[in-house]
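Hi P.,

Sorry for the delay on this. The queue was packed all week, but I finally got your sequence through. Input first:
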Amino acid sequence: MQQILSVPSQLGALLKAARKEAGISQVRLAERLGISQSRMSHMELNPGSLSLEQLLAIFGVLGLEMVVGSKRPAPTGSKAPSPEW
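Then the structure:
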């Protein structure tokens, strides 16, 4: 799986899709992270509540990694999206 995240709201869907692709339920993922299933659900629905440490822990369990790179320049005349924060 390779996904580009541009805005925070995309993270929840990515986490859910990666979890399902790995065949792991919210309950099992929560157990492996040492948290409750309701907290795991909250993290997927409200990814802005995640700390970097929590995000990397989830990525570790799901076999994901984070790669950071420069954005491609926007085509001339287009307006870059505003951050959602």
